[in-house]
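Subject: Interface between my chains keeps coming out wrong

I've been trying for a while to get a sensible model of this assembly. When I model each chain on its own everything looks fine, but I need the whole thing in one frame so I can look at the contacts. Pasting all components below, labels as-is. Any help appreciated, I'm running out of ideas.
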Amino acid sequence: MPRPVEKLVSLTINGNEVQAPAGMMLADAALKYGDVEIPVFCYDAKIGPPVGACRMCLVEIEGIPKMQAGCSVAVTDGMVVHTDTPTVKAAQEAVLEFILINHPLDCPVCDKGGECPLQDNAFGWGGGLSRFVEPKRHFEKPLALSPLIAIDRERCILCYRCVRFSQEVSEDDQLVLEERGADTFVTTFDGHPYVAPFSGNITEFCPVGALTSRPYRFRARPWDIEQAGSVCTLCPAQCNVSFSVRDERVLRVLSREHDGVDDGWLCDKGRFAYQAIHVDARITEPMMRDGGELRPVTWDLAIETAAKLLSHAGANTGALVGGETTNEEGVLLAHLMREALGSNDLDSRPGGALEIELLRALSAPTLQASVPDLQYAHAVLVLDCEPVDDAPILDLRLRKGVRHHGVKLLIGSSRPSALDERAAHSARFAPGCGEAFAAALSAELAGQPSASLAAAAGADADDVGALAAQLREAGDEVVILWGERLTAGPRGNEGARALLNLAEQLGLDGRDGGGLLEIPSGTNSRGLREVGVLPNASIGLADAPTAGRDSQQIGEALADGDLSAVILLHSDPLLDQPSSALWQRALGKASAVIAHAAFLTPAVLEHANVVFPAESYAEKEGTVVHPDSRVQRLRRSISRQGETRAEWALLAELAARLGSDPKALTCSMVSARMFEQVPFYAGLSLDLLGGVGIRWSEREAAASFPSAPAAPFTLDAPPAAASPNGLLRLGSFRSIWASPEVEASPALAFLHPRQRVEISPADAARLGINHGENVTVASNGDFVEGLAHIRTSAPDGTVFLQTAIPGDSAALLEGPLVEVKRS
Amino acid sequence: MAWDPDKDVIEVIRGPQKAGGAGGLYRAFGETLRGLKTTFGQLRMGVDTIQYPEEKIPVYPRFRGRHQLHRFEDTGLEKCVGCSLCAAACPSDCIRVVAAENTPENRVSAGERYAAVYEINLSRCIFCGYCEIACPFDAITMGHEYELSDANRSDLIFTKEMLLAEPLERTPLRAEGE
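Reply #2:
Try treating it as a single job with all components included. I did that and got this:
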């Protein structure tokens, strides 16, 4: 549904006339527009409709004989509200006295002490004395609700916040309340651990110390820490976070609510993977390969060696740039490559380049949907991506849209999605056939024959028809949330054209509240493209003077000996690139591999000659660009650990030693220069970005975005999906937990995935495979082992494997068909 | 025309022009003798010097000297649970507490948590006693020891073990009514 139109009503709160939007809850309206605080425990607007469980918010409303819960009464015109009468005061004191009947007074040992809404409310609105002298109820405590969350049931005031979060926000339906009355307690079914991608939010959301974070348990009190706001760069969702810092260590991560980005929630990776900043496994000093093994060396030696290796290779150097790179680092790397080394072989997209024209068309500001659009659109088409794995926080946004705003959710993906059960319609297609599927969908929308295209996509023609019908009927505001996978690989250009045709069919260009929203493969992929970390584009998506090799070609050129050195800036091709075999050969052949890495991932461990320590995201400064074009600022929250140095300075130093000094004295100098050079960033500055960032596509300077060819394009017939023929089609996905940070975090390590082979029950029965068995997936002599995971929603004829896990990654296999057997 | 000094001009008034004589003597020594009268008047009061450090002044029971941490006498567990309220109350920010969790194998305090690190930087402490007031478990009190000088600033950071230990030498306490 489109955004609700705000209609103001006027009401009187404590004798003051207040204007507030109709339908807003009284507790919110009083605080926001009337500057009157009504105390609450159970209510928070971001969790959805109120339940009125705690009764803390009682107020008097004239004309209603009994007191009303301020959290569950919507403001109406002419309402007269009193929040400070003796009756209200008495009610608040009584409610607090009741709430404190069973609440233990162990604030000194409670982690919430000092930042506890119950303490605040008891202090602000309580009577100060309790008449209850009876013994309090007792539960066994502390218990582990999950490896990440500790639960203390004695402290619970039964506000239902966590249960409602689990049931209505993350919709994992795991938390429940058991028993009745004072014996009620929060638990999971049968006491299973509460493991879900968003479970950590309840520790921040609990108004008392009943649910606390185990990694943060007893680490610090609120007055010991400082909050440092920055942006999480562990996935493209780029949630705004606030680091709790004590003694230059990050002790926890809290959400920094931003409606345009994260809506105040965080995924567990974002909340707990900060631990990887302070582990021994992290690289915090430069290293060099000596006698086959990486050994720590001094900075001088490492820089000198790297400069020597690079100047030796000269133009025969390639560079792969990972998604955690900031724009500033990207600019300096491009300078190092293009100016100092004279090489155009740098790429930030895995698996091959996209035509620059198409890239411009896809990033065009008029076609750009924003994150809040997902919540208010008429329909959202999730195309070839899995939000919970690729950009987790968008999963919550989509669920919110469906639940509270009637968004029609449509899914077209090859792997069954976690959102399927919330979707109006889901269609499956064969892995890698997103292009054919998009083409089929736009043909169907245009009223052209689509059956052959649907067949080529390995999709059901009726499914495509139903999806198109839903899209046609939904309304104007349609958002297509698409994964970079659609435009990756050898047929990426055709995928992009098909997608642009689909957008054209839906008339998304220039439409408010609708458009395209990409989930790229890397955190800052969008920013890196815009500052010219591409083989075929220079800064500002302008044409590159000479086109260089893309990531795939860099790999091939290294393997053939055409390139001799490669820089891996926060990128491990063995994890990030689609073909491990190619990169094993390429890195084995390369005479110099210079890596900037935080962890000894496979490519770094086995092939790097010089390793520079990478800053963690809490140590970095610079800017990143959100997939919806929001330029956000990273701020340094802690001092750099160990010997780590600023990477922008290192890149500038390398360029200077190689004869082209970028004259970058500070990082903000590079930012300022970048804002000048990118035409559509014109007028931005770090100060303007502030803590919330700015969407450049909404500014006037967006008019200077380079023009792009307009759809529709004529498409050549996409290749048909491979017919399984007794074998299985290979699909791959990257789990939210498949990252070196998760592996290195002590608290999260239990979630770091092992390879699992997702297979449908019919295929499993045919191959005689049982759930949980060890199976081998083989193609062309390569094989991967994993545990069989029989998934009822998996499409027949397809097997899904994970990429980006060390050892048994799906990238080892060459598709499209593989053989699965018991091992 | 008579000279009229402007208000900007400083007028210097000098003393009597004639020096010497009885008046001169009095002017020279009179005031000094008046002061010495008080000095010599004290002679009859006797000697009141305390021979510190051999001899020490007894302190009042509420004297705020160096802090002490306490244990439960029966169980030997530390009273401090590492709640850090003392650190919050401290106006000179000289207390540092890092808490940890008690385990059945390693039980240090009575509650769920204990202070793994408890440090007071006595070179910053102003001995106001707020920590003692803030402590919900009477785990920290201001002791009577006041001999805290040291040759090295870092030696004035007292650790938990030092604060838990009984002082080597007890400061004499002023008796009732003394």
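Reply #3:
Confirming on my end. The CA atoms of residues 434 and 486 of chain A lie 6 Å apart.
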